[in-house]
Amino acid sequence: MRKNYNDERADSMVKRNTTLKDIALSCGVSIKTASRAINGEAGVSKATMERVRVIAKELGYVPNIIAKQLASKRSNVLVMIYCYVDGSWINDVQRGAIETAISHGYELIMRPAHNPHDIDADKILRLYDQGSVDGVLVTSPFSSAAIVDVLYEAGVPCVQLSPKRDDFRYPAVFSNTGHGACQLVEYLISLGHRDIGFIKGVSGESGAEDRYLGYCRAMENNGLAINKDWVMQGDYTFRSGLVSGRTLLKRKPRPTAIFASNDEMASGVLSAAHQLGLEVPEEISVAGADDVKMASQLWPPLTTVRQPSAEMASLAVEMLIYSLENPLEKKQEARELPAELILRESTVCPKFSQSS
């Protein structure tokens, strides 16, 4: 007896819930091997191929027709994985990614998370397996997290935005923010600052590490000791900048300039200075990084290192779309965009050295 429409639809939904990862786990092979076995590709033994196909049939795995159609029949939908942050950097990234995706006829789905453990990798794989999405853009700090390995093993097209420089599996886009940070500290030194405090970004995040190393390099190149009491750990939020700023500005002696790893934290330092009755930049110079929109709207406007966030995201989307539309070109590349020093009114020559 033929099943009615609702029964068939229910069966179909059950089958679509079985993914390549389910099959791989059941067979004790990688997701990529399971995919190759089902598709009859080279590099898989006959025994493994038969075992994978038997398990796939038992689990009711049915590859979505859309996912198996020609490249011209793609869903034209991309996914961007990003971290919830209390800042403006991600707004620039989203703007650059969305505008570029739309201009190429693609839609962009956002998948935010607080940390790598919150990312539902199975859901991302299921969307790809069903043909609902074509590829993934992974932004920092997730661009160096385990999700990238999962996507790579499953053969999902992807581009990494700002991963660690020794940790990319896919085409990647960077900015030389470490060099930019070094330039900014060199500029502060050229103004006469010798007592320069620093507020770090999120621990383990590639951009944060690069900026701290840039700060250290500039100090060491100029024969200046790094005072550990003037180096604080932040997390890119306004609050961490406010708390770190208060601590640094209450030190005795205190620095004459503070460089925060992003503009959000630098704005927190400005607020701390105002609360403590210190004039910026006359009594304390403050600088940030990223050059988000608010950096020019604060008072005084922030000296900062411009990271071309929107341009980086735009380039990453273009690279992802190119890889989708040219599947035979399996080329891994890393593109680096330059950072730029932006000078504004929040930094001037110090009146005197606090440590002297």
Would you mind describing this structure in some detail?
- Helix 5 packs parallel to helix 12 and helix 10 crosses helix 11 (263-275).
- The chain has twelve helices and twelve strands.
- Residues 1-16 and 65-72 have low confidence and may be disordered.
- It is elongated and about 75 Å long.
- 41% of the residues lie in helices and 16% in strands.
- The protein is of the alpha/beta class and 356 residues long.
- The longest helix has 17 residues, at 309-325.
- The strands form two sheets. A six-stranded parallel β-sheet has the order 2-1-3-4-5-11, with helices on both faces. It has a six-stranded mixed β-sheet with strand order 7-6-8-9-10-12, sandwiched between helices.
Helix content: 40-55%
pLDDT averaged over residues:
86
Number of helices: 12
Tell me, briefly, the overall form: elongated
Structural class: alpha/beta
- How many angstroms does the end-to-end distance come to? 93 Å
Radius of gyration: 25 Å
| Biggest sheet character | 6 strands, parallel
Stretches where pLDDT is under 50 for at least 5 consecutive residues are 1-16, 65-72
The strand count comes to 12
**Order of helix and strand elements from N to C terminus:** HHHHEHEHEHEEHEHEHEHEEHEE
A few lines on this structure:
The chain has helices at 5-16, 20-27, 31-39, 46-58, 89-103, 121-129, 146-153, 177-191, 206-221, 238-249, 263-275, 309-325, and strands spanning 77-83, 107-113, 135-139, 158-161, 172-175, 196-200, 231-233, 257-260, 285-290, 303-306, 334-337, 340-342. By secondary structure, it is α/β, with parallel strands linked by helices.
